[in-house]
Each structure stands twice: as C-alpha cells, then as structure tokens.
Amino acid sequence: MAKIQDTTAMDIEVKKRKLPLWALILIGLAVVAIPILYKSRTLMSWAQSDRSIARDRIQTAVVERGTLQIEVLVDGRIVAANHVNLFSQDPGVVQILKREGEEVAIGDVVATVASPELKNRLNQEHSELERLQSELKRDRIENKNQLLEERQETERSRLLLETAKRNLERNQKSFEAGLVQVMQYEASQDELKLAELNYNHRNEKMILIEESLEFEIHNRELEVRRQELVVNELKRRVDALQLKSPIEGLVGSLPVKDLDPVAPNQPIATLVDLTHFEVEMDIPEAYGDRLALGMKATMTYENQLLEGRISRISPEVIRNQIKGTVSFSDGVPEGMKQNKRVAVKVHILSKPNVLKVRRGPFLEASGGNQVYLVDGQLAHLQSIRTGVSSLKEVEIVEGLEPGQEVIISDMSRFGSSQTLMISN
Fold it and tell me: Which candidate among 39, 207, 255, 285 keeps its CA 20 to 30 Å from the CA of 353?
C-alpha cells in the first residue's frame, strides 16, 4: 500500500518583524502627549472662566424659530350658569315643601306663602266685579226699554205726519171744489208743517239718545274691564304665593326656615339649573389687559379636553385676581358636577415666525436682559432683549440666533461671573 504524505515539506518558516525604533518612540510620545494636551486645554478654559459648574447641575435649551403660543394656566371651578331666586311679592308666612339638595322639575311647588289679607282683598275685588257686571246688564236692559219707547214715539210722529198729508190733500180738493173755506184749508197746511217738524225732531232726538246710551254702556264696560284687570292681578299674586320652579335642577339654598314670616320680595329659595354649566376662574391681574371676550380656552375635566370661550370678564380686581367665566363651545358633558375643580388654559395670543427659547428661571433672575451663551466648555454672559412669554417659552427679540445653546437655569447663584466653565 502507498503511504499518504503529510504537508510538512510545504511549510515555510515566518520570521517576526520588529517595529523600527523611531516608530516605537513616536507611539510613546503620543501616549504621553494626549493627556497633556487635554489637560492643557482644560486648564486654558479654566483660566478664561470666572467660575466652574458641572453640566448635570444646569439646564440648557436651544434657540429656535417657530410659533409662540401665549397661554395662561389657571384653576377653575364648575358653576351653574343659571341661578333662580324665588321670592314672594306679598308678606306672609312661608311653608317649605322642598329641602336643600332636593331635585325639582319645572312646575314643582318649592314653597307656599300664606297671606290671608291678599286672599280677602281678592274676594272683595271679585265681588265688586260681579256688581259692575250686574249693573252693566241692567243698564243694557234699561237702554233697550228706553230705545223701544223712543222708537214708538218716532213711529207715532210719522203716523201723524202721514195723517196730516192726507188731510191736506182732502181739504185741497174740497177747497178747489168750493166745499171748504180758506181758513180750514190753511189750517190743514199748518198741521202738516207741524207734523213734519215734530217728525224731524223725533228722528234727531232718536239719534242723540242712541249715541248717549251707547256712550253710557261703553263707560260701564270700561269699568268692568278695569275691575277685571284688578281681579286678574290679585289672582296672579295669589297664585304666586305658590313658589313654583321655572327650571329643572335642584334646591341650592333656603335663606328662610319653615313657618318664618317673610317680607315682600324677600328671597325664599335659590334653585340651581343642572342643564347649563360654565367655568368660573381667577386670572392674575398681569394678564388683565390681554384678556378679551371670545378668547379660546381649553379645560381639562376628568382626563377630557373641553373647548370653550371667555363669555364674561369682571371689571373689578380683587386680591390681584380678575374673575372670568368660560362657556362650553360644544355643550355640557354628561355627569358634570357643580363646584368641581378644573384646569383652564386660556389661549391669549399666537405669534408665528418668532425667535424663542424654552422658559426657565433665568427669565426671573435677570429680568429677561441677560443669559449665558454656551460655547463648548465655556458659557459667556450675553445681553439679550426678550418679548412676550408663555407658560413654556419666551420670545427673543435680539441678542441670540437660531441654533445657539443657552443656560436657562437660575443665574443668581453665578453672581457677577461673566464666563462659566462647564465641566463634565
């Protein structure tokens, strides 16, 4: 059998190559020089600075250009938009039928007021109305009788006129025939004239009597109508002694107790409308001149974002606060409860294409006039001019450029240092 030969004969011995001495010297110098250069640069930065600060102890932000949303965040409270005060126009003794916190529907009687004097006056005025109505009916009957008698007299005068006309015709024929004397003929003429005068007088008198009777009836009707108004007003006041709810809601408060005497127009109960709510908020006085009716507001209620607009602004400043009211834009959510706290964000202004930076304590510390501009490991004090500010950002009017990094931490701890060294 033939033997399999190994590869020993093909192996070649490789000798190790040594680096030249000059290469080894360069490597050693680099190892020594790099830490020295780093330390020297750090020493140069430290020499140029007035104070050293660790990077993890400061906050920085980058200047950028964009839209600045000016907003103010305040606390709000849900209140009923409609409050109804129930009161009685007349004095009496009140009886409470609904208690505080009890729900009421439209038309429910909340309380009643007992006023015997008012009811007695109503009865008296009602009796007077019945008397006037009775007199009006009697006058109408009497006027009919009087008109009937006057018509009879007018008809009688008409018959006498016709009789006188016929008598004159007969006497005229007889006179022409020579059967009667002149005196008799002239007498019949006089009787006709007298009958015509009497008839015309009766007609004119009939017209005057009708107008006079009609005027008297009209006056009687006016008296009745006036008395009806008095009675209706007293009925309304008596009905108003039952204090009914004009809304659907609940009884908010009862300023009086059961069986207490009440004066005219004294509040007896306050009802809260549970179908219409709004948000009442206190806004810092500093934003007062920027507020306007109709401004958009966003409310956070039970993890829901609700849109609204400012509907009322109080002209008074109380304890450095201005009261405002926000109405819901898309209706009131179901299950909303009165007096619940909500966070309100009022959108005061939107400025596009402005230079801005994140807001920080530096704004209050320097009054918005200075900021530390970061340049590598150094931060130099830079004069700036700020504009309007929002909850998160502040407008940079001059002194900075987009992309620059600034320190937004509190500057008061740096004293009057012009340059800071930022260590890692």
Answer: 285
Q: Is residue 211 part of a domain?
A: yes
pLDDT tens-place string over residues 2-21? 444 555 555 555 444 555 66
Range with the poorest average pLDDT among 162-176, 375-389, 394-408:
162-176
pLDDT tens string 247-284: 888 888 888 898 889 999 889 998 888 778 888 888 88
How is residue 346 written in tokens? 């009022």
Residues in the chain: 424
Strands 405-407 and 60-62: antiparallel
Q: Residue 287 domain-assigned?
A: yes
pLDDT in tens, 277-307: 888 888 888 777 778 888 888 888 888 888 8
Q: Do residues 295 and 358 share a domain?
A: no
Looking at the fold, whether 144 and 229 belong to one and the same domain comes out as yes
Provide the β-strand partners of residue 266.
Answer: 88
The pLDDT score that the predictor gives to residue 43 is: 42
Q: Which domain holds residue 264?
A: 84-110+248-272
pTM: 0.51
Do 327 and 226 fall within a single domain?
A: no
Q: What is the CATH number of the domain that holds 379?
A: 2.40.420
Task: Classify residue 5: in a domain, yes or no.
Answer: no
Q: Residue 163's CB: how many other CB atoms inside 10 A?
A: 13
- The first and second tokens of residue 57, run together, are 């102890």
- Which residues, in sequence order, are CB contacts of 117 under 8 Å at separation 6+? 90
